Amino acid sequence: MGTQGRRRAQDHDRWKPVRSLAVPVLLTGWWFHVLLVATVVRAESSKLEFGGGSTFRNDSDVPCPTGTFRCSEGKCIPQTSVCNYQKDCEKGEDEFNHCPPPECEQGQISCGQYVFNKTYCIPPHYKCDMTVDCVDGTDESDCTYRKCQPDDIHCGTPSQSVSVNGRVADICVPKEKKCDGYLDCRTGVDEEGCPGIACQLDQFRCANGLRCIDTTLKCNHKNDCGDNSDEQNCNFPPCHGGQFRCANSLCIPATFHCDGYHDCSDESDEANCTAIACPDNKFLCPRGGPNGQPKCIAKTKLCDGKRDCEDGTDEETACSTASCPALGCEYKCGPSLTGGVCYCPPGRTLSTDNRTCSDLDECNEWGHCDQLCTNTDGSYFCAIVLPVTPLWTNPGAWLPRHPTWS
């Protein structure tokens, strides 16, 4: 009780009204007085006290929830943002917390030490090139450097070059590297004034000298260069029996050769074909393709009223009406693969005897009407339901109506 009383006395002492003002306010023609009380808080210290005895001097002292990481500036970030190789805290301490190194891309080599935002993965040709790329210098350790010859190309001195015997290294490459299409010097001196494009040492330079591609694109059965030089001198495995070898060395089933479909990406399987054999589910148009070339189409496209073959054989040669006299169609007989087929006018459908016509109930089929549908013999009509407007929604409906006298 004593302690509680002292606290109340202290609290009462901290909060004291120091001034009261009577302010006249004009409201709807009457004068009222509003008492404004200004209160000054007299605090013994700048700290805030919370229940439980916890004291926080500022926001940076507030603990972060479970599953989060607290930055030095007080910001809380998800634990998943720690060591994700991106700076989320202002000072980047979320990436300095003994983070594992990233995985290098295929073909690259790693430095000995990982430091956030510093080079860790480098191409192989950066190793022992007299230029320090790794933060720990391991890319230039245990290296035996080539001694420059009198007719060598001197590359110049990059800002991060190493020192040899106390002197800045003299980086040079053989004269044969001049204008070879590749940047053997990191400074590019060896390719200055040379025709064509200069590629990095981990790229492939196309024979036309117009494009550099990634080395992984070489010998992938695709013409990435445009001149097909990336698919030359490749050690592709041979095709086995029952296969056809495309011009790009890709192997396809032999039955796909000259079947009217391009199965090779370079279309070489349909080149120089004088006669083709279509699969069982296809129909051969002898001159139905571009420039009178043979073409295979699906048999389901035959006799559908559309010319899928440029020579029209899918709607003429393959279709016949020879059996029409014997069918005795009620309406008309059209061509088909079997010599003819009966069909009916709009609004009627073929009966089960495949000869006579009966009424088509359009109301049982989707898409004819939006709301109400009424079927009639040989036709149908649609109707819509209009919303009913209640009388009370029209205020004028309650007013008396007076006749107009003329």
From TrEMBL:
Subcellular location per the Swiss-Prot or TrEMBL entry: Membrane
One annotated Gene Ontology cellular component of this protein: apical plasma membrane
Recorded topology in the membrane: Single-pass membrane protein
Keywords for the protein's UniProt record, in alphabetical order: Disulfide bond, Glycoprotein, Lipoprotein, Membrane, Receptor, Repeat, Transmembrane, Transmembrane helix
Transmembrane segments: 21-41
Superkingdom: Eukaryota
Principal location listed in the UniProt entry: membrane
Keyword Lipoprotein appears in the UniProt entry: yes
GO molecular function: calcium ion binding; hormone binding
CDD domains: LDLa
Keyword Transport: no
PROSITE patterns per the UniProt record, alphabetical: EGF_CA (PS01187), LDLRA_1 (PS01209), LDLRA_2 (PS50068)
Stated name of the protein: Putative low-density lipoprotein receptor ldl aedes aegypti
Organism: Aedes albopictus
